[in-house]
Amino acid sequence: NDQIRRDYLDRKGFEKLMTMQAPDKDTEEKVRNYYVALLISASKTDKVVSYYDGLLSRDPKNTLLMGQLAEIYAKKGDFDNSLKYYQKRVVVEPGNKEYWYTIGVLCWDRVHNFRSSLSVEDNLQTIDIGVNALEKAIALDKEYFDGFVYINLIYREEALVLSSSGKAVEAGEAFDKAEGYKKIAEVLGKKRLAAAAAKKGA
Q: What is the DSSP letter of 20?
């Protein structure tokens, strides 16, 4: 139909445009994002992945591209490749707490949503990667509220996995760790609310 024809022509036009040199970085990013949005709307995810791979081969330390590619893989349900590109990001910027935090959230999401379909070994391995990443995030910022929330959540997942596999003692230890991090998150949450209220009243 007409809409499909227009989308095809838009993509073809943008593919030609992508071979040209953009006048500045902002324009380059806007054009790139629009092109990617066109491809995604047309369910051309594999083409998006190939496109980003090509960009990264020319700019291998671009953490923005790594994050975008990791997000695309995550939306596809490809945990391994998503993790791979998020991990590439922390190699380039190991001092970025949000990069470590994102790995932790990715791992929590996998276990939380697919725990019953994964083996105990897969669950625990994913949890271990997530815990290590979140520990690095909160080591970089001792008041990282979101980091403490998710390390609490991922330890709760570990407790469930261990409990279901008959390891009651280890499950109890994981639950206690979760509770400890939960208490820290609650304290930090109250501090955030107090700071926001003080700012509003100033």
A: S
Query: How many CA atoms are closer than 13 Å to the CA of 128, on its beta-carbon side?
Result: 7
CA distance 109 to 114: 8
Can you give the pTM of this predicted structure?
0.81
- Cα–Cα distance, 36 to 32 (Å, whole number): 6
CA distances from 17 to 5, 40, 157 (A): 18, 18, 47
**Quick one: DSSP state of residue 23?**
S
Span 180-199, pLDDT tens digits: 999 999 999 999 999 888 88
Give the C-alpha separation, 104 to 100, whole Å: 7
Q: Tell me, what amino acid is at 148?
A: F
Residue-wise DSSP of 140-189: H-TT-HHHHHHHHHHHHHHHHHHHHTT-HHHHHHHHHHHHHHHHHHHHHH
